[in-house]
Design goal:
Layout: E1 2-4, H1 7-19, E2 26-28, H2 34-46, E3 52-55, H3 70-98, E4 101-106, H4 118-138, E5 143-150, H5 156-165, H6 168-176, H7 187-198, E6 209-212
Helix pairs in contact: 2-3, 3-4
Amino acid sequence: MGVDIDEEGGKSITEKVQAFGGSMTFVKADVSNENEISTFFDIAQEMGGVDVLFNNAGVEVAKSLLDTSEEDWNKNIDVNLKSVFFTCKYAIQQMKEKGKGVIINNSSVAGLVGSFSPAYSAAKGGIIALTKALATDFGQYNIRVNCICPGAIETPMLERVIKFQGEPSEVRERRLKNYPLARFGYPDEVAQTALFLASDDSSFGNGATIPVDGGFTAK
């Protein structure tokens, strides 16, 4: 099952999955709204319950502390952090009944180091702390909870952030100096890490925070 507020994008992904012989059910929902979260987990329960949850919803708050409004802060926390709390809550209820489960939370290197957007860093750091708390609390039920911290990944969100910071080519050149691999990452590279964490190949991994950042946080 895929869940997103973007109905057109969700249908497009569903068609791509089906074109490769897979199956997917798309549900339009706002993950910052607990009532809508509850509804799509009811649908998941009717389909057999949740085995793996990948929390990948997010919005950027490309603003400095002094430019961040209360509205900016609330939207950032609601989408980037509150959604993770409640999706984990409803998923774990179903996973406990099954006696197993895997949760992968997508955070950011901004949760590990300071960034130009303190509101975004606060939310992403909260995801890391939440991951550790849940891994500690629910490991006894054979539920593993881990966290991925991507660096700059070639996505539309990255492009928007770069444009906010100045002339795009100059910003790219400046930011690339912080990446030992001398490039930004690609969505597939994050997806492969998520697949590893979802599989039995990582069966003893619990409470981990894994940077996928080309060495950004190694410096």
